[in-house]
Amino acid sequence: MTLKQKRDAAPAIGFSPLYQQVKSVLLQRLVDGVWVPGSLLPSEIQLAAEIGVSQGTVRKALDELAAENLLVRRQGRGTFVAEHDERRILFQFFKLVPDHGERRFPESAVLNVTVAPADAEESAALAIEPAAGVIRIRRLRALDGRPLILETLSLPQKVFAGLDRAEIPNNLYSLFASRYGITIARARERLKAVALSADDAAALSVATGTPALRIDRIALALDGMPVERRLSLCLTEEAHYLSDLR
Amino acid sequence: MTLKQKRDAAPAIGFSPLYQQVKSVLLQRLVDGVWVPGSLLPSEIQLAAEIGVSQGTVRKALDELAAENLLVRRQGRGTFVAEHDERRILFQFFKLVPDHGERRFPESAVLNVTVAPADAEESAALAIEPAAGVIRIRRLRALDGRPLILETLSLPQKVFAGLDRAEIPNNLYSLFASRYGITIARARERLKAVALSADDAAALSVATGTPALRIDRIALALDGMPVERRLSLCLTEEAHYLSDLR
DNA sequence: GAGTGGTCTAGACCACGAA
DNA sequence: TCGTGGTCTAGACCACTCA
């Protein structure tokens, strides 16, 4: 039975436009890993024939997924599953930019990796049971050799089982995708200005009480589940957080 | 001569899709005040006939303008020019939200209004000549009676001639639109964590050196010209800046 | 019921990239 | 030269609003 027939058969209950249903079907394939990052999707015409709708309807679904940065469309080549390459992360997920000079990635040094029961904040942020296991990664990130960000990541152990310290790369999201089949689709950040504690200040090589930007990020997978909590303390003497309102 | 004929006549030089040209035409009418905020646009069919393209092409242009929050489309009613009502500002341009409780507007108290030659920062931010006149508005904004934001606005005097202290409302952007015909289309914010100076701390009723979130906003009009610079110092003990990454 | 925007279709042609 | 996505058109029908 085609999608259109399904809709027409029961128009009263939970009606939604065809292209939205097509979008859900395609999204589910991304979630299920039928199409992995970097791979080429079938052409619009093939998808339309397979799903049983017109090319225009498939196009509208694909366009929306592309607008959400989940797909990349290239004229003459085809439609691809978006990858978490450096450039994408840099512009979509990394908002701290130097006051002067180019936007670029900081180097990372892992300080320690521990596994522990989730505290109250973590279980709330990650929507996991109280005291469920979390992997905590603490790392220091620097630009031009100057410590800039002290970062504490909390990952649900259930999702990222077997994550080893040795394999933690600078770009974590591409590891999530390649090793665990998890695509980070979007994130929510809450920012505050705080005074650094003695320990945090020492790690960043500044004086206790130095003002820092505290970023509390929760990153969501394709299916909307929170899969990462990231607490960052950023020095903003020579950098700033860039937010475009439109 | 219709748009399509124009394009076909000279396809080599500066080709752009028809719907983009239509979009430019419509945008120009917004800039020129042909259609003011809140007013009803002609129907898609009327616009298509007038401009000389198909309804689908007009639709694509209208959809993009709606996606940029410049128009509001309502099924069964028509397409309207977006207004800077409280709700829109609250969600599009006001990112500081209480940690607990509902997102809401702070009350404002104007501390002083002065006119002075622009300093280097202002002339750069507003793209005006060095020492051109700017209106500076300093105000204190509070939630539930607690001072939260100390704000300094810089407006080019040329654009906002005759702005009087008595007429400064809490919602400035609707005044910009109604009195000066200027629509704020988008803004760029740069955030830093700073320690409050003695003066600023006193204005906010906190101790000198208290960490605060410093937001440097440049707001752009429909035509892309910067028309407002806003420097905010925000206390983030019980509130945070919310940023959605997607 | 008339008019609006929203969806869906079918088909034509264009611009682009790669073989 | 071929296949891809991008644009444009024309027309049908649907859902919503309001008189």
From TrEMBL, chains A, B:
* Domain HTH gntR-type intervals: 16-84
One GO molecular function term of this record is: DNA binding
Q: Which UniProt keywords apply?
A: DNA-binding, Transcription, Transcription regulation
On the tree of life, the source organism's domain of life is: Bacteria
Transcription is among the record's keywords: yes
Q: What's an example GO BP annotation here?
A: negative regulation of DNA-templated transcription
InterPro entries hit by this protein? Bact_HTH_transcr_reg, Chorismate_lyase_/UTRA_dom_sf, Tscrpt_reg_HTH_GntR, UTRA, WH-like_DNA-bd_sf, WH_DNA-bd_sf
Task: Give the protein's recorded name.
Answer: GntR family transcriptional regulator
Please tell me the species this chain comes from. Answer: Bosea thiooxidans
